[in-house]
Amino acid sequence: MKRLFLPDRVQLVHDASGVEAIHARFSAHAYDLHRHDDWLVGVTDQGVQDFLCRGARRRSTPGCVILIEPQEAHDGQAGAAGGFVYRMLYLPRPWLAAGLADAPGGEPGFIASLCDDPPLGQAIRAACRVLSRSGERLARDAALDGVLDRLRPHLGRKPRRLPPGRDDRVARRARERLHDDLAGDPGADALARAAGAADRFQLARAFRAAYGTSPHAYLVQIRLLRARHLLSCGLAPADVAAACGFADQSHLGRRFRRAYGVTPAAYRALCTDVPDRRRAIA
Q1: Does residue 130 carry a pLDDT above 70?
Q2: Between 39 and which of 28, 91, 102, 155 could a Cys-Cys bridge form, CB atoms 3.0 to 4.6 Å apart?
Q3: E runs forming strands in the chain
Q4: Residue 43: is its pLDDT beyond 50?
Q5: Contacts by 164-167 with C-beta closer than 8 Å and gap 24+?
């Protein structure tokens, strides 16, 4: 994953899937009229975002969702004193087409360029946060699929239809794959192929039906169990983080404390009476 930090408090993240996420705050900056090759899906967090699209000026206030099609001309500027803060996802055409492959019906298009859809706005925020700080492919895929599911009605597509009934074999194979490569970073598509699922959406449904959670959440849980064991054996938190597939010691610390209420260093000291002489990272 590549990150590019630009002036005026703009953070741009480019994901391996081709999706880009921007989190920006502008006070005086204004975008000239321009176009993108991607589908733009954004949410205004603060202030008023004024933009021209489809021949009319729009005013996006906090919570409003902005939807702009590829090659649709638009600009952007503050619509009130104090500027505005927004998050935006740039979804490549092939990525969106693959996600809508189950729902034929001609070329998709947004019904409106500005709408009030709080669940979609929350999904956009969640995806931007995950893309900006997570090294876990499953987490990023799940967050982007959450956006895709919420986008379907705005594109004139019905909710995704999945085969009825459970598929315990698919779920079991995926679970075994996660246990076999605890420190790996599988994507949802790769895990679905390994499990024999038709696609990542079938895998997600089968896994939740069998185990009550998502593949990513399950992977985090078994990584934490392994981390507890290694820490109780006296391994240093930094070494445990690497062995269990966490991005770094800080990543392990955040997850471990949220799950167990103590830092990895404190748990290691409790189990072994060996203090971590380095500064513990929570």
Answers
A1: yes
A2: 91
A3: 2-6, 10-14, 20-26, 31-34, 39-47, 49-53, 56-60, 65-68, 74-78, 84-91, 114-115
A4: yes
A5: 166/206, 166/209, 166/210, 167/197, 167/202, 167/206, 167/209
H helix and E strand count, the chain: 10, 11
Residue pair 115/67 in contact by the 8 Å Cβ criterion: yes
CA angle 167, 169, 170 (to 5 degrees): 70
Q: What domains are defined for the chain?
A: 2-155 (2.60.120.10), 168-212 (no CATH), 217-272 (1.10.10.60)
Say what the pTM is.
0.85
Residue with tokens 């970073």: 185
Name every residue whose Cβ is closer than 8 Å to that of residue 122 and which is 6 or more positions away in sequence. none
**What are the CA-CA distances from residue 40 to residues 11, 102, 190 (Å)?**
16, 21, 26
Write out pLDDT tens, residues 61-112.
Answer: 999 999 999 999 999 988 888 889 999 999 999 999 999 987 777 789 999 9
Give yes or no for a contact between 42 and 89, defined as CB atoms under 8 angstroms apart.
Answer: yes
Residue entry with tokens 């240093």? 236
Helices (H), 100-214: 118-133, 137-151, 168-180, 188-195, 200-211
What 3-state class would DSSP assign to 197?
A: coil
Tell me how far CA of residue 88 lies from CA of 10, 187, 255, in angstroms: 11, 23, 27
